[in-house]
Design brief:
Elements (H helix, E strand, L loop, with lengths): L1 H16 L9 E4 L7 E16 L4 E3 L2 E2 L2 E17 L4 E13 L13 E10 L7 E7 L37 E10 L2 E9 L18 E2 L7 E9 L21 E18 L5 E19 L4 E13 L5 E4 L7 E2 L18 E5 L1 E11 L10 E13 L6 E14 L3 E10 L2 E4 L2 E4 L3 E11 L1
Antiparallel strand pairs: 1-2, 2-5, 2-25, 3-4, 3-17, 5-6, 6-7, 7-8, 8-9, 9-10, 10-12, 11-13, 12-13, 13-14, 14-15, 15-19, 16-18, 19-20, 20-21, 21-22, 22-25, 23-24
């Protein structure tokens, strides 16, 4: 133990003495004189204080709760990455998610942290035209929100539905993959071949084979995905496979994009005659992203609009609630929707076979002073979904919020109000229930 402590002390002493190797405001170390080779470490923490109106029947450790208040860590992450040779890039991310007092409430709360990413990438061309990479990675198709840079998001949370298989056949949206990505002229592209995890290893009991489609527990197939952007103005960041939520006025971005993913025989269901039917999982999205300075007083606008066609097979539906503050329900199969995922707490139908329109917009208020200290940015977001399983009932979710940037994304406070739907079952018919609200205060620290 003494040798470990001595090693850390030696490392930090050398780091502090080598002032020319450290870039201002970043834990970034030059590996050559020019800085083209480097290694960088970042840390991020998103702490939430939240009040939630519970779904009908919600219980917390056996006690019925109409409302909950919880404190938790939505995300705690460490990134280690760098351009270690002129052509070779390496990236690791370690951390945990959704850690509140109810996390693993019946088992071991200490098992949360895990590797999110571990990849190596080789730059084939002299510029960014072609990079080949592989490992555990979020590099994906479908949408920019399928591979979001969570330290730069505009809203308090990302639209998780765009991470279509999260914690089902992936590891928190990451898969073992090989990929090609690059920027050629005004085009930005990525093509991915993934080896998904079996749904039986996600820590939950898979639903029994039924007339409703679910992820198949027999068989295995690879997944292909692709994403293509046309960039009208500035190029997007290209250091890692992650995509920025907002550049806070540092770039002039206007893009249109199309993406998709396909996996044969990923889903299964049972026919009326009892036969097992396998179906492909296939998703397509078309989107546009705007993020640029406006006016003359250091203000900026960020806006997004996307259409998603998500196909998980016959009537697939999955509930999900971010960092769910509850543990159970008093409802039964006769008076609630049977689906993937828990229906209690703050959960709502987040994933399903159907169509989704997602939009968000934010505006950084004008300021007489430059920089990102003491700046305000209100935002609004809407998710308008129509899932086959709900027989025409919409799943519309709305968010209103405001970010207060103490120092850009390095230190910010966010206040968010979400209004979401609930559903009930009466005489075997699904009907709309009350609309429910959640208020979240987030503190983000990022270095």
């Amino acid at each position: 133990m003494k040798k470990v402590i001595l090693g850390f002390c030696t490392f930090f002493s050398l780091s502090l003495s080598a002032q020319t190797a450290v870039e201002s405001e970043a834990l970034k170390y030059k590996l050559n004189e020019s800085g083209s080779r480097f290694f960088q470490v970042t840390f991020l923490n998103q702490a939430w204080l939240r009040f939630n109106q519970s779904n009908p029947g919600t219980t917390v450790i056996g006690d019925p709760q109409a409302n909950t208040f919880d404190i938790g860590l939505r995300r705690t992450r460490m990134q280690l990455f760098g351009q270690i040779t002129d052509r070779t890039f390496v990236y690791f991310q370690f951390g945990q998610n959704n850690f509140n007092s109810m996390y693993n409430s019946t088992s071991n709360r200490k098992i949360a942290p895990f590797f999110h990413d571990a990849l190596g990438e080789y730059r084939v061309s002299s510029g960014n035209q072609l990079k080949i990479g592989g490992g555990l990675t979020i590099a994906n198709g479908i949408s920019r929100f399928s591979q979001p840079s969570i330290g730069t998001i505009l809203t308090t949370d990302v639209p998780v539905f765009a991470q279509t298989t999260v914690d089902q056949i992936d590891q928190f949206s990451r898969k073992l993959s090989i990929y090609a990505r690059g920027q050629v002229g005004k085009f930005d592209y990525r093509a991915v071949l993934s080896d998904p995890f079996p749904v039986t290893s996600n820590g939950q009991t898979p639903p029994a084979l039924s007339t409703v489609s679910n992820f198949a527990t027999k068989g295995h197939s690879l997944q292909t995905a692709g994403y293509l952007i046309y960039q009208f103005f500035d190029h997007e960041n290209h250091t890692t496979p992650y995509m920025n939520g907002t550049y806070l006025g540092s770039k002039k971005i206007f893009n249109v994009a199309i993406g998709g993913a396909y996996q044969p025989n990923a889903m299964w269901s049972k026919s009326a005659s009892g036969d097992t039917l396998y179906q492909a999982m296939q998703h397509v999205a078309i989107e546009s992203f705007l993020d640029m300075p406006v006016g003359t007083k250091n203000s900026m606008i960020s806006a997004y609009l996307g259409y998603f066609n998500t196909n998980y097979g016959n009537n697939y539906l999955r509930y999900n609630g971010a960092m769910n503050p509850a543990t159970g329900t008093t409802l039964t199969a006769s008076n609630s929707i049977t689906s993937q995922g828990p229906t209690y707490g703050n959960a709502y139908p987040m994933f399903g076979t159907g169509n989704v329109i997602y939009s968000q917009i934010g505006y950084m208020l004008p300021s007489q002073t430059k920089g990102l200290a003491n700046r305000w940015m209100p935002y609004a977001a809407a998710t308008l979904a129509s899932y086959d399983r709900l027989n025409g009932l919409p799943t519309n979710t709305f968010n209103l919020g405001i970010n207060y940037y103490l120092n850009g994304n390095k230190s910010k406070l966010s206040l968010d109000y979400q209004n979401r739907p609930s559903y009930k079952v009466e005489n075997s018919e699904i009907k709309a229930g009350d609309r429910l609200g959640t208020v979240t205060l987030q503190m983000q620290v990022f270095i």
